[in-house]
Fold:
Amino acid sequence: FGISAFENNDALKNIYLEGKIIADYNSFYNCINIEKVFVNNLTLWTQSTFQNQTSNPIYYSENLYSGNNEVKEISIETSSLSKYLFINCKSIEDIKIVGNIYNIGRDAFYGCSSIKNIKINKLSSWLNVQLENLYSNPTYGVNNVYVNDTLITELIIPEGISKINAYQFFGWKNIEKICIPQTVQEIEIGAFGGCNQLQEITIPFIGKLASEEYYPTDKAKYFHFGYMFGDIEYEKSYHQSGYNVWYYVEYNFYIPLSLETIYITQGNSIDDYISNNFSSIDSDKENYIKYVKK
Structure:
């Protein structure tokens, strides 16, 4: 579909699509009366590409049909998903990720509020996924995430992994314990945000990077414990905030209230961390988190 192909067409109610779709900007802009979107091949649909929110008719229909059946379960076998692919699709309840996926575009699952279960074939495959933003991640608001059909309550990152990407495990609400090996050298923002039942975490360092070499303007933000939990507010979280007057950097992070114990296996000591980053320890969550240095 070309740019603004059906723009302002308020007569459209049912959309029938065949095969893989390539839609340019605003293909369905302001087609507010679209009620249903039908596709003849769900596998080919997952290979479609969209340039913005309103290039996808699902943005207005809020549902997707395969044949005459409303799509409640999708199986992802492709290596990447387009931005906005399932935006606002409230019919989806279950997702299976059965292949090796490497990239999910921005807002691919934005507004998919009915998702209940996510099943991932291998944790190592999921760790390779680059998420363009929080709403690229289908797990961000889901209670039940399974790996190899096992509900994940204890997350053990495999040895050999060097980086955990942004929002990688955001919203895995059943996780109670996380163990990160010393091979990990970088943890991006929000990697473990929304894990609001987390009680214990083992980490090799505090902040974004294991290395002490930071760009000066980013140091105040990257150095904080809350960085791995991110700056997006979620239920049952503690707000950690501050402002570095030397680098003009403000930070706002949200740490799970459930968190009780942190093990640090190498790198910066907790005493140095607290003295360098908090002017009033009594006012901070760190005052009653039980830090234990291995």
